[in-house]
Design the sequence.
């Protein structure tokens, strides 16, 4: 249980284009999901909290208009990187808290496999 | 407020040797502590977690960690390293739930290198 998927696993795009990344909870519902960014050899940086049916909450320093988040259903959150530039190249990871009692409890985050974005 | 310090960005061991990855935390509330493992180009996989109760926690792949409140530590150990253990390991702490979810704060990670 508690499986989170991401699509695509990697994407290469031209500067100025927009890229959409999907995060799905496969066997449980997630009213909240989290989006992280990870630079090479570094830790995860929380970007935003995605809330089903309401606006996302962004961490300080994260551009809301740059990183659009939509939590359309209880199993799907999307992150759209708008007008991507080379500095947006990174590894993007989503997570969802487990559910109680079936999937580990809400104290544990379950992570997707990540999406490698390369902007040329 | 909470934070995690992982001592040593790289730890190198021989196959069959003891693995010890250090983690110290700070938290203004009773902490929930986690160890995650990340293989190249993959997401994070939960190894083990401490919430309440027994302070010695056993996880997957033979790993265990001990919560020591007096030392504010949660070090990860494994008696005998395997080549397949080579990966990046992240310690994380969370406390009071935000909107119902425990959002972890991660350490910078420790890269475990296993030599034949």
Sequence:
């Amino acid at each position: 249980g508690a499986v989170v998927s991401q699509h695509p696993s990697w994407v290469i795009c031209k500067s100025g284009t927009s890229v959409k990344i999907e995060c799905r909870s496969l066997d449980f519902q997630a009213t909240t999901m989290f989006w992280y960014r990870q630079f090479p050899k570094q830790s995860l940086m929380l970007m935003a909290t995605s809330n089903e049916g309401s606006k996302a909450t962004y961490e300080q320093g994260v551009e809301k208009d740059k990183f659009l988040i939509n939590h359309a259903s209880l199993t799907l959150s999307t992150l759209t990187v708008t007008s991507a530039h080379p500095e947006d190249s990174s590894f993007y990871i989503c997570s969802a808290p487990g559910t109680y009692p079936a999937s580990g409890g809400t104290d544990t985050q379950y992570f997707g496999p990540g999406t490698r974005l390369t902007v040329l | 407020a909470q934070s995690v310090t992982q001592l040593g960005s790289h730890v190198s061991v021989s196959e069959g040797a003891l693995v010890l990855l250090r983690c110290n935390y700070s938290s203004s509330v009773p902490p929930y502590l986690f160890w995650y493992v990340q293989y190249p180009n993959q997401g994070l996989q939960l190894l083990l977690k401490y919430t309440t109760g027994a302070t010695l926690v056993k996880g997957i792949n033979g790993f265990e960690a001990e919560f020591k409140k007096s030392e504010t530590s949660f070090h990860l150990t494994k008696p005998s390293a395997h080549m397949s253990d080579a990966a990046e390991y992240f310690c994380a702490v969370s406390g009071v739930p935000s909107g119902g979810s425990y959002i972890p704060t991660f350490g910078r990670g420790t890269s475990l290198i296993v030599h034949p």
Summary: The radius of gyration of chain B is 14 Å.
